[in-house]
Amino acid sequence: MPNNLTSLTIREARRLLDARQVSSVELTQAFLDRIQQVEDRVKAYVTLTPELALEQARAADRRIAGGSAAPMTGIPLQIKDNMCTRGVRTTCSSRMLENFVPPYNATVVERLNAQGAVMLGKGNMDEFAMGSSTENSAFFPTRNPWDLERVPGGSSGGPAAAIAAAEAMGSLGSDTGGSIRQPAALCGVVGMKPTYGVVSRFGLVAFASSLDQIGPFARDVGDCALLLSAISGHDRRDSTSLPNPPQDYAAALTGDVRGLRIGVPKEYFAEGIDPEVERTVRRGIGILEGLGAKVDWEVSLPSTRFALAVYYILAPSECSANLARYDGVKYGYSDHTAASMWEELERTRQGGFGQEVKRRIMLGTYSLSSGYYDAYYLKAQKVRTLITREFQEAFRKYDVLVTPTSPTAAFRLGDKTGDPLQMYLSDVCTIPVNIAGLPGLSLPCGFAGGLPVGMQIIGPALGDAAVLRAAHAYEQATQWHTRWPEL
């Protein structure tokens, strides 16, 4: 079990910090001590920044003493290692960027710094955010704190595991096809992918630009709402950023869902879902119904079955274009042993990228190539429009949709590495949300075989507050979020 300080929520820590009952230095040191105790087994961090963390904690204590504390002032957090941090290496868990130190901060890091947050370090991930298990990290796999022989999910496995293992009070991940929600489900924590454009992507190393979105991990929904409020809002440096003012998402947490219209899409309970996971999620939906929500158990989103195929055309196509910049010339790994420039470029990409990244670059290059563009990429974009329209139609009738987050609980390390298709199916419940640019949140709703199960709540575009409201009401009626793994 974590100790008293590392088991606090952000809100509890905020009250203690503001009352001067604990200092940010004490809080940060408690997390650094906890990391020292368990990190060798969990491997949630690529880079630790203890000196920077304590420096930021001292600055936070001065700010609190001056009476100008913000919600994140003095709060120890972890940042996924695909978000630029000035002066601290940002590797994307790839050999290609193993020694890359950005000269600037991502907007989300700037916003946390402006509030006086503390950065404990950078979270491990699947290389360039491509994977569902964090086994594709070029450095080491992260392990699930509930069972160290199992995966934490991916690609944001480090940030999810860090929360579950009490190695950070909150963390930021990125979600391209489920990379926040799926690891949140497998690690028994709360993770949210906001509406596309609500959080700036400036300084996020791109995988698939029309799908990527940054979002928070936390112990509970209240902390998740606070973190989302801290990082959201318009950013002129990101052309996809929505021109919305910052919002206080915690204000939506009323605890009341009476009259809330909930749809349960039957396609998400199709063949392949673990029966115990299905039972657990259906029980969770029943609790929401008992709280006064109006549940329709027979909603249909027929185009959902094409979402996986659409994603594995669109995401690799965008990845193929985005990763073309890693040529060994401007920055990153470079192989200088070749006889010519072209051979050097080839060797750089051979040695710098791992197997999964190379697989997706090839898939994307094929989809975009002459003669196949219309048959694959263009057709996938058309089906993307159909999937988006189906969601829009559903949200004319329902306030939120509720589904499983992952078809299974955490699987064993190595179980799916030899079968890419089985690995890709891990995100079958989360991918449609990215394709349509919608907000989605995973929160703990029980256990299957002793492992956490996540329930996914999906909202309409800009319905982030409604998603948080439903999740918070469920959480208040249950105790799953209070369970910790025995490490």
Summarize the structure in words.
This protein has 487 residues and is of the alpha/beta class. It has a domain at 10-256: Alpha-Beta Complex (Amidase signature (AS) enzymes), CATH 3.90.1300.10. Helix content is 38%, strand content 13%. It contains 15 helices and eleven strands. It has helices spanning 10-18, 24-42, 50-65, 107-115, 157-164, 181-187, 221-231, 275-290, 307-322, 341-352, 355-368, 373-394, 420-424, 431-436, 464-476; strands at residues 45-48, 76-80, 118-123, 170-175, 190-193, 213-218, 261-265, 294-299, 400-404, 440-448, 451-458. Strands 1-3-2-4-6-5-10-11-9-7-8 form an eleven-stranded mixed β-sheet, sandwiched between helices. The radius of gyration is 21 Å and the shape is globular. The mean pLDDT is 96.
List the defining traits of the structure above.
Amidase signature (AS) enzymes; eleven-stranded mixed β-sheet; 11 strands; 487 residues; globular; alpha/beta
Mind sketching the topology for me?
Layout: H1 10-18, H2 24-42, E1 45-48, H3 50-65, E2 76-80, H4 107-115, E3 118-123, H5 157-164, E4 170-175, H6 181-187, E5 190-193, E6 213-218, H7 221-231, E7 261-265, H8 275-290, E8 294-299, H9 307-322, H10 341-352, H11 355-368, H12 373-394, E9 400-404, H13 420-424, H14 431-436, E10 440-448, E11 451-458, H15 464-476
Helix pairs in contact: 2-3, 7-15, 9-11, 9-12
